[in-house]
C-alpha cells in the first residue's frame, strides 16, 4: 500500500490503519514469517481470528506509541508456542520498516522502528534464538 501524504502525528486511527496494512502485506508475502501467520490465523484478513489480532495489535502499538492503557495482554507469551527462528525476526523487521517508512514521516517512523527492534531483540533473547 502507498500513502500519498505521510503522517506526521501518531493517533489511534493511523495506528489501526498501519496494523491492517502491515498484516495485509504479511499475508501477501510468501516467506517464513507469513507462513507462521497463515498456519496460526489463516489467510483471510477478514476472519474473526484476524480481526481479533488486528484489534490486539492496534492496542499494543497504542500502548507503545501513545502510552494508552487498553492493551492488557502479554506480548511475548504466544510466541513461545510458535515455530520461530532467528532469521524470521530479520524478515519481520524488514517488512515492518518498509511499511512504516511508507506511512510516517521520519520522526514518527523512527519511534516505531526503534521500539520494534528493541522488542524483537528482547523476544530473541528470551526465546533463546
Ligand atoms: C518472527 C516474527 C514474528 C512472528 C512470526 C509472529 C507471529 C505472531 C502470531 C502468529 C501471533 C498470534 C498468536 C495467537 O493469536 O495465538 C502473534 C501475536 C503477537 N505478536 Fe508476534 N510475531 C513475530 C514478531 C513479533 C514482534 C517483533 C512483535 C513486536 C514488535 C510482535 C508482537 C506481537 C503481539 C503484541 C502479539 C499479541 C500478543 C497477545 O496475545 O496479547 N510479534 N505474533
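^ C-alpha cells above, recovered residues below v
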Amino acid at each position: 500500500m502507498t500513502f500519498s501524504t505521510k503522517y506526521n502525528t501518531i493517533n489511534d486511527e493511523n495506528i489501526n490503519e498501519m496494523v491492517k496494512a502491515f498484516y495485509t502485506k504479511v499475508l501477501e508475502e510468501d516467506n517464513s514469517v507469513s507462513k507462521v501467520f497463515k498456519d496460526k490465523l489463516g489467510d483471510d484478513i477478514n476472519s474473526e481470528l484476524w480481526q481479533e489480532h488486528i484489534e490486539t495489535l492496534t492496542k499494543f502499538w497504542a500502548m507503545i506509541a501513545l502510552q494508552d492503557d487498553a492493551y492488557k495482554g502479554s506480548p511475548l507469551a504466544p510466541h513461545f508456542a510458535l515455530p520461530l527462528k532467528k532469521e524470521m525476526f530479520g524478515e519481520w523487521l524488514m517488512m515492518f520498516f518498509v511499511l512504516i517508512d511508507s506511512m510516517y514521516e521520519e520522526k514518527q517512523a523512527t519511534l516505531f522502528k526503534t521500539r520494534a527492534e528493541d522488542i524483537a531483540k528482547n523476544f530473541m533473547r528470551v526465546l533463546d534464538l
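The chain has one domain: 12-126.
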